């Protein structure tokens, strides 16, 4: 199946929806963004990858007041890697309640499912130093 402009629009909106759902506390709707068996890799934050959409929602609830008040995504770049499979790379900015902010890169594998496009794997790379230097 051909990767179309409509697919690009749908995937871009999918990636953007993650922040809207998190910031509004609608964690029970994360299945609109992720596959049921999503791997959400937060290992660069010193934690084990989250396995499944329920684990992602539980992690968000467990963070409670430590969650950012705003998840913002930008610079979305999409590359078709196979039929019904797209690699997405985007920048994330998290704004905290105290006004501080952080920057990450999201690396997503997005899959076409019967329910529409969904993220099946997300790896988060935090940025702690300029020019791509590692912490």
TrEMBL record:
<feature type="domain" description="SnoaL-like">
    <location>
        <begin position="5"/>
        <end position="123"/>
    </location>
</feature>
<protein>
    <submittedName>
        <fullName>Nuclear transport factor 2 family protein</fullName>
    </submittedName>
</protein>
<dbReference type="Pfam" id="PF13577">
    <property type="entry name" value="SnoaL_4"/>
</dbReference>
<dbReference type="InterPro" id="IPR032710">
    <property type="entry name" value="NTF2-like_dom_sf"/>
</dbReference>
<dbReference type="InterPro" id="IPR037401">
    <property type="entry name" value="SnoaL-like"/>
</dbReference>
């Amino acid at each position: 199946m051909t990767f179309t402009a409509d697919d690009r629009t749908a995937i871009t909106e999918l990636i953007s929806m993650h922040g809207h759902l998190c910031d509004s506390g609608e964690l029970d709707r994360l299945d609109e963004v992720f596959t049921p068996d999503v791997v959400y890799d937060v290992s660069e934050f010193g934690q084990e990858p989250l396995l499944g959409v329920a684990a992602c929602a539980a992690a968000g609830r467990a963070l409670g007041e430590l969650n950012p008040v705003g998840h913002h995504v930008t610079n979305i770049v999409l590359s078709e890697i196979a039929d019904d499979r797209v690699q997405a790379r985007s920048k994330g900015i998290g704004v905290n309640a105290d006004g501080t902010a952080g920057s990450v890169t999201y690396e997503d594998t997005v899959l076409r499912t019967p329910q529409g496009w969904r993220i099946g794997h997300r790896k988060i790379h935090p940025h702690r130093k300029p020019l791509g230097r590692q912490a």
